[in-house]
Amino acid sequence: MDYKAQVTNSILSVLNDELSSAEVYEKLEKPKTLAMGDLAFPAFSLAKVFHKAPNAIAEELVSKIDQSSYEKVEAKGAYLNFFLDKGNFSNEILNEVLEEGSAYGQNDNGKGGNVPIDMSSPNIAKPISMGHLRSTVIGNSIAKLLVKNGYHPIKDNHLGDWGTQFGKLIVAYKKWGNEEDVKKDPINNLVKYYVKFHVEDKEHPELDDEARETFKKLEDGNKEEVFLWKWFRKVSLESFNKIYKKLGVTFDTYNGEAFYNDKMDEGIQILKDKGLLVESQGAQVVKLDKYNLNPALILKSDGATLYITRDIATAIYRDRTYKPAMNLYVVGAEQTYYFQQLKAVLLEMGLPSAENLHHIPFGLITVNGKKLSTRSGRIILLDKVLDDAIDLAKKQIEAKNPDLPNKDEVAKEVGVGAIIFGDLKNERTNNIDFVLEDQLRFEGETGPYVQYSHARAESILRKAGDIDLQGANKRLDDPAAWETVTALKDFPDVVKSACKDFEPSEVAKYSLRLAKAFNKYYAHSKILVEDDQLAARLSLVKAVSIVLKESLNLLGVKAPDAM
């Protein structure tokens, strides 16, 4: 039931067309605390109509309103505060959650529309570091939110598998590497060669010329360079997929930059045909003055292509292949201006999906305030962080619940979940300074706290035994449960809002709010007491378990039944 609509109708019943239904509905507010009611209407807007002080108007309206369907309605200052009937409300919400289960909050707003999500996108022959975590888990959570809102996401791991860095890597491998070492430990050895190249080229700048020549050989299809490139790509993907498996992240396509290498001519030709490509200092650019942007460089003076040339080809391919409802790029905030230029160029080209291209920016992960960098050798490997988190989770589980039968599996779910949740609880545009121990705490605003709250709910249900909740009366009159019940009601709105804003943190913050409300209720109420409200209380516990599990699922985090 739309309780805002119910309150709107109650207010309209004591007005004489002074406000429309839409105006009343829009003016309704949620009070700061539950003690002030569940919904409030400010009477300020009626002061000019009634020629009275808002306080007096509120008092007068309250005296006329039929309060039979509410717990009470009262005037507080200039506000009419509506307190919903707790029994009816809880019965309706708990029935809805238990009947719908994990589908609670599902909607079909997306009408099945395709949404390609450009996400993760590590560079071949470089390790997946903590710097890649954000794009991966934010993109994965947005994909889950899109499904929940009726869209069809297409997760595209747009690999960095082309460019002059491969000239540098091939030169470095030939000078300092060997096949046996790469076979033993591909990524760590390849990145050592890459870092060594950047150390050496400070003293020997001629190495850069050699790297450019080597990349030209690769572009021209030279057999040796192509063999090395394919080998580096294969061993890199094998390494990446082990980490993605730990994170529980899958992709629908791995089309990297190299895939679009032979598809750039079409985009360049469209720009030429539309008269958009103009010469500037020997290079080819698209002027973007009408967007208040600098010209977009499309081709260098020597005819060489750039990232944007390949991204134009990518956008054309996705537009043609998927007919997207939206096109999402989950890429760091430092690329915001670039994506403004890309979108402007695609709009000028007349690409149908350009209007719905969205850059989803996010802040940096730092460690001790320092930015991570592969080139400088200052990297923290994501694989090691995940392993450390799993080990720390296992130690805590050993201390808290040594008899837990599936400790290793739960430790993995808690450890990996802690890293994912620790990222996603932050608004994505914020920078994060990473501290492993803070993420793994079982108390406070952490993933393990929410997981533990879910496990607690499941433990209560196991202790209760086999009780049929489906047909039970779920009218819960206990005021201590009200904060939890109203939080459950908010979940569908959070699902819509988080998807609309591309903001997984809204779900993470919601899960913390629900977990805190439930734990407060648990601390102050005896649940397993044989009385006429037992089934209603257990229905609340079951509903909390369902919604906490689904909230975590939308973040890409598992919810163990015992911890």
- The fraction of residues in strands falls at 5-15%
Note poorly predicted spans. Answer: none
Under the CATH scheme, which class of the domain at 114-260 and 322-366?
Alpha Beta
Shape field = globular
Query: Over all CA atoms, what is the radius of gyration?
Result: 29 Å
Q: State mean pLDDT (0 to 100 scale).
A: 94
Kindly report the CATH topology of the domain at 114-260 and 322-366: Rossmann fold
Structural class: alpha/beta
Classified in CATH, the superfamily of the domain at 114-260 and 322-366 is: HUPs
End-to-end gap: 36 Å
- Which CATH-level-2 architecture of the domain at 114-260 and 322-366? 3-Layer(aba) Sandwich
Order of neighbouring strands in the sheet with most strands: 5-4-9-10
Query: In DSSP terms, counting alpha (H) and pi (I) runs of 4 or more, how many helices?
Result: 21
Architecture overview:
With 563 residues, this protein is α/β, with parallel strands linked by helices. The chain has 21 helices and 13 strands. A four-stranded parallel β-sheet has the order 5-4-9-10, sandwiched between helices. The protein starts with a helix and ends in an 8-residue tail after the last helix. One of its GO terms (molecular function) is ATP binding.
